[in-house]
Amino acid sequence: MRSFDARGRQPAFTILTIGILLISLLAVVFPFLYVVMTSFAPREEILTRGFFLLPHRWTINAYGYLMNNRQFTTSFLNAVHITVVGTIVNMVLTSLMAYGLSKAWLKGRRALNFMVLFTMLFGGGIIPTYLVVKSLHLLDSYWSIFLTGAIAPFHLIVMRSFFQNLPSELEEAARIDGCGEWRLLGRIVLPLSMPAVATFTLFYAVQNWNSYFNAVLYLNDSDKWPLQVFLRQMMNEANDSMENVSGAFEYSPTVKMAAIVITALPLLAVYPFLQKYFNKGMLMGSVKG
Fold first, then answer.
1. Over 70: is that where the pLDDT of 138 sits?
2. Which SS3 state, helix, strand or coil, does residue 137 take?
3. CA-based diameter of the chain, in Å?
4. What is the dihedral of CA 65, 67, 71, 72, to 10 degrees?
5. Domain ranges of the chain
6. pLDDT tens string 197-225
7. Gap between the Cα atoms of 266 and 277, Å rounded
8. Global pTM value
9. For a designed S-S bond to 258, which of 7, 62, 188, 201 qualifies (C-beta 3.0 to 4.6 A apart)?
10. What pairs with residue 247 in β-bridges?
11. Entry's InterPro entries (predicted)?
């Protein structure tokens, strides 16, 4: 007979599951740990010692170098601006459109839902989108990034389904008390939808923080480039050095690793506070289509 544990599972299956999870954990943690440790090592140790996890001598020279680098600090502040303002624009537009499409009495609701679904299957293309942005005089403006990715169709559909799952009795009681649409959305619907709001806020924040292609496409002024563009240029340097108008300066391997750590740190700091909303937000929003 097969033996089972207290939860009715086979011990061999449990051991296999734990083993797979541990291997997956190491595959994710080990590279990041190497990047973090390397960022605190001297440049000479990396060039002479080869692969290691713990440096013989610890130093923060790489981080000090980046903090004194005007191009890095400017791109970091640009990334913060794009993330904060872009996420607010994303959530406001997504919430308003999802709330409207969740109402069965909305005229043309079926056609609008089809248009949203159509954009998930077919895109406008790079050149037509660029021509639209240019005709609106949005080139070299952050609004070219905010508006071209203002609403993600998948996020919109899931949030619309989340709104539809809310009890209709709450809406009827609020209307009897004289609550209008704006108060209904701000006082009842959004507070009850915090799992979905928090989940997609983080999704949009990650999207804006990692914005690269749109920034390269629409922003010609290098002083407006976000952090990902600067990081990409740094990683592409074959000889660990780079030229600018003020002279030559070197991006050593430790500086590159430190830049990667600083780039990933904001999202790593925010994610644990919103993680508890993920499963609830995604599952409740996908029950009803």
1. yes
2. coil
3. 77
4. 100
5. 62-285
6. 888 998 999 999 999 999 999 998 888 99
7. 18
8. 0.81
9. 62
10. 244
11. MetI-like, MetI-like_sf
